[in-house]
Design goal:
- The protein is an all-beta fold.
- Helices cover about 0% and strands about 65% of the residues.
- It has no helices and 16 strands.
- The strands form two sheets. Strands 2, 4, 6, 8, 10, 11, 13, 15 and 16 form a nine-stranded mixed sheet that branches. The chain has a seven-stranded parallel sheet with strand order 1-3-5-7-9-12-14, with no helix packed on it.
- A hairpin with a 2-residue loop joins β15 and β16.
- About 45% of the residues are buried.
Length: about 210
């Protein structure tokens, strides 16, 4: 969905089944342009076998997205992949609220949420995330620099990474905030220990 040139994309309802088997592919967003994306009340199933791919975002430019009340089931196999975000852009800003995502990726250079080669701002709220990524440089959150900020709020995160780099993210500890919810992240068969803050008075800016 969307043109290769980028711009604003708003999808407020629907069921989408996407299959791709080619060199470059974007599901929702843009190939060369910036992508500003809003998805609400959608059900997305996608199966990508690609060289370079993005499910939601921009392949070569910046991506800004808000995804609410949406379920995503994705299998990706390739060389360079970002599921939500960008492969070649400088920045990805990702806000989710009440999404369910079941993601399985096999790609040497890959991340599930963020800019593979840029800054990532991730605000994942009230979301159920079941994530799996395998590859030499596979990540879950953000890209290969330390310029990633991650908020996991009131979410249930179950994730597995198998890689040579042995990380789920390059974000420094001070840039990671996990509030309420549950999280179990396993990297190369070892469970990560990260502080979990319990704050039941916490409210999102959009607390309606």
């Amino acid at each position: 969905s969307g043109s290769g040139l980028g711009g604003s994309i708003q999808v407020h309802r629907g069921e989408y089944n996407l299959k791709a088997n080619n060199e470059e592919c974007v599901g929702f967003g843009a190939i060369t342009g910036q992508a500003d994306i809003e998805l609400n009340y959608c059900h997305i199933e996608a199966d990508f076998i690609v060289g370079t791919g993005v499910l939601i975002g921009s392949l070569k430019n910046n991506a800004d997205m808000t995804i609410c009340q949406t379920s995503v089931y994705y299998y990706g196999f390739g060389k360079k992949l970002s599921v939500f975000g960008t492969v070649g852009g400088d920045k990805a800003t990702i806000n989710t609220k009440r999404i369910g995502a079941e993601i399985k990726v096999t790609a040497d250079d890959s991340t599930i949420f963020g800019a593979l080669n840029g800054r990532s701002e991730l605000n994942l709220v009230e979301s159920a995330l079941k994530l799996e990524n395998s590859g030499r440089n596979a990540l879950l959150f953000g890209g290969y620099g330390s310029d990633t900020v991650l908020d996991l709020i009131n979410s249930d995160t179950q994730a597995t990474v198998r890689s040579a780099i042995g990380k789920d993210t390059y974000a420094p500890d001070e840039n990671i905030r996990i509030v309420n919810g549950r999280r179990k992240i396993i990297v190369n068969e070892t469970e990560l220990e990260r502080p979990l803050i319990y704050d039941f008075g916490w409210k999102n800016d959009d607390s309606k």
